[in-house]
Design brief:
With 125 residues, the protein is of the alpha/beta class. It has a single domain (31-120), classed as 3-Layer(aba) Sandwich (Hypothetical Protein Mth938, Chain: A). The protein is built from three helices and eight strands.
């Protein structure tokens, strides 16, 4: 599914999503990743939400966005309570949703000019 076309070489936007694949600036990624308007961590080592730990999110926590979206794969699932509790205490908005919804929401928040990060777990289950 194509969401939008690249409008600037300076920003990372989600240009498509299908199970097992996310498009960033029209490049397909089949591994989990973290995307921000000005940065892309293309090899994020998280395969499932059960694997998610705080150190996996350190690059986001070092420079916290206004909103952090966590796309948990094909279905919405919440991370471990310790992770979830710590994220909620950081003073940023945190939203947990399936990866397709996180991709759409990332583009909407970015289009508003807000600081957003999306940690997207890509799975094909």
């Amino acid at each position: 599914m194509l969401f939008s076309e690249v409008t600037s070489d300076e920003s990372y936007i989600v240009t498509g999503y299908e199970p097992g694949k996310v498009g960033i600036n029209q490049v397909a990624y089949t591994r989990s990743l973290i995307v921000r308007p000005n940065a892309l961590q293309a090899q994020w080592p998280v395969d499932t939400v059960r694997d998610l730990t705080l150190p996996d999110l350190q690059s986001v926590l070092d420079t916290p966005p206004e909103v952090l979206l966590i796309g948990t794969g094909l279905h919405q699932q919440f991370p471990d309570r310790t992770v979830w509790r710590h994220l909620r205490e950081q003073g940023m908005g945190v939203e947990i949703m399936d990866t397709a919804a996180a991709c759409r929401t990332y583009n909407l928040i970015m289009a508003e000019g807000r600081d957003v990060a999306a940690a997207l777990i890509i799975d094909g289950d």
